[in-house]
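User: Once you have settled down, look closely at the record that follows, taking as long as you need, and be ready to discuss the fold:
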Amino acid sequence: MKAIKANVTKGFEVGSRLIASDNSGAKIVRLVSVKLGKARKRKRQTAGVGDVITVSVKTGIASMKKKLFTAVIIRQKKSYKRSDGTRIKFEDNACVILKSEEGD
């Protein structure tokens, strides 16, 4: 997969809800924090496509609820500009939950 070579517009703040588009069992997750995220003083952290985030599961299988997982944002509704000048946006906000070191 190629890296994004443009400045992606940050479409998510802490507390945003996203759809988990994988087969982990989670349906809807809430953004808790942005890994390696930077924010000004008294400003919320923001995230965009390709950012690694920490999420908590809101709806899904019972064993995953109220637990923290690492995820990557793959789609956002807010449009962003690619390096070739085209603008791209999707119909939903989505992420993929990553496996932990234990294999969960």
